[in-house]
């Protein structure tokens, strides 16, 4: 029997007296052949990087890295391991994301627990962490708000990088916050991040934070509802709609953040927010029309795509006079 459980360290596997229906116990199938067969299976289902995925899944089953697998290509695995491996390959064949199968994703050099309750962290989101860290490099005791925190990856990375920062992280999903708290505990920063359930700035209204925040980070939903059908199956069929869909235009949530952020930012404080492809012009216009920001910059990701808005609040801007 196969049992799965999620602990503070991530997904753990328990195999108890499994009866294999996958291969004969006397089979001489090697690790190399097992990976090749799985890769072919995944390729037939149009999985990109099918060989790598097959290796990652087997490494997950055996709790070994890729280098170990390569060094042990002639070896065999047990029937219980083979049974569990076949189960994982079938999950990937129906386009379930690799990260949900293994329950982890690397971000900023750290491993994060991910479940279907949270968006899978993407490399481009590291641009948010990088720029927030740069802005706060010389700050003594900065206050940071992370909106739509999801797995908590942005807030947790900033807590590790900025050891004196006070961080507040909000999300509408209680389930997502459970994952975020688990990740914060795993990385030793649970005492320095306050996770709060609620919509954007809403749960912070009681915290008397007006005009005191150094940086606001956000990776909000930014997919237009009409684009959902055209997304990759891994995204469309498995990632949480709450973290993906923003509205008909895709800029609705980001627009609210741009409008409401000046109330919380201190003079010279910055909003650092990820957005979707093709949205830079619209969001820059929204930020400009508030009259609250002295500079509005758009940063490109490693693919050369406009990805992150950085808007600094004007000195002595009066939000009450708007």
Textual characterization of the structure:
The protein is α/β, with parallel strands linked by helices and 322 residues long. It folds into two domains: 2-94, Ubiquitin-associated (UBA) domain (Helicase, Ruva Protein, domain 3); 104-321, Vaccinia Virus protein VP39 (Rossmann fold, 3-Layer(aba) Sandwich), CATH 3.40.50. The protein has twelve helices and 13 strands. It has helices at residues 31-44, 50-62, 66-71, 79-93, 98-102, 126-135, 153-161, 174-186, 233-236, 241-244, 252-264, 280-290; strands at residues 2-7, 10-15, 104-107, 110-113, 143-147, 166-171, 193-197, 213-218, 223-224, 245-247, 265-274, 293-300, 306-313. The strands form four sheets. It has a seven-stranded mixed beta sheet with strand order 7-6-5-8-11-13-12, sandwiched between helices. The chain has a two-stranded antiparallel sheet with strand order 1-2. A two-stranded antiparallel ribbon has the order 3-4. Helix 1 (31-44) packs across helix 2 (50-62), helix 1 packs parallel to helix 4 and helix 11 packs parallel to helix 12 (280-290). It is elongated and about 75 Å long. It starts with a strand and ends in a 9-residue tail after the last strand. Residues 1-26 have low confidence and may be disordered.
């Amino acid at each position: 029997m196969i049992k799965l459980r999620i602990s503070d360290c991530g997904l753990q596997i328990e195999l108890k007296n499994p009866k294999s229906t996958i291969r004969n116990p006397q089979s001489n199938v090697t690790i190399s052949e097992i990976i090749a067969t799985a890769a072919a299976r995944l390729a037939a289902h149009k999985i990109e990087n099918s060989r790598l995925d097959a290796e990652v899944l087997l490494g997950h089953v055996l709790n070994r890295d890729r280098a170990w697998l390569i060094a042990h290509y002639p070896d065999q695995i047990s029937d219980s391991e083979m049974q569990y491996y076949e189960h994982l390959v079938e999950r990937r064949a129906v386009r379930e994301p690799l990260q949900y199968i293994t329950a982890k994703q690397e971000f900023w050099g750290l491993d994060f627990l991910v479940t279907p309750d949270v968006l899978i962290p993407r490399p481009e989101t590291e641009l948010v962490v990088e720029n927030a860290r740069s802005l706060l490099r010389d700050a003594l005791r900065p206050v940071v708000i992370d909106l739509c925190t999801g797995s908590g990856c942005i807030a947790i990375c900033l807590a590790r990088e900025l050891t004196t920062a006070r961080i507040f992280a909000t999300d509408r999903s209680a389930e997502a916050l459970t994952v975020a708290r688990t990740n914060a505990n795993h990385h030793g920063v649970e005492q320095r991040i306050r996770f709060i359930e609620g919509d954007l700035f809403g749960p912070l209204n009681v915290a008397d934070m007006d005009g005191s925040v150094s940086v606001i980070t956000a990776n909000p939903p930014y997919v237009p509802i009409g684009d959902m059908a055209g997304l990759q199956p891994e995204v469309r069929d498995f990632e949480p709609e709450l973290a993906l869909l923003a509205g008909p235009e895709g800029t609705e949530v980001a627009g609210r953040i741009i409008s409401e952020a000046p109330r919380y930012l201190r003079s010279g404080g910055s909003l650092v927010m990820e957005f979707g492809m093709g949205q830079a012009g619209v969001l820059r216009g929204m930020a400009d029309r508030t009259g609250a920001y002295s500079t509005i910059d758009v940063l490109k990701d490693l693919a050369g795509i406009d990805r992150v808005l950085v808007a600094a609040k004007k000195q002595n801007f009066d939000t009450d006079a708007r």
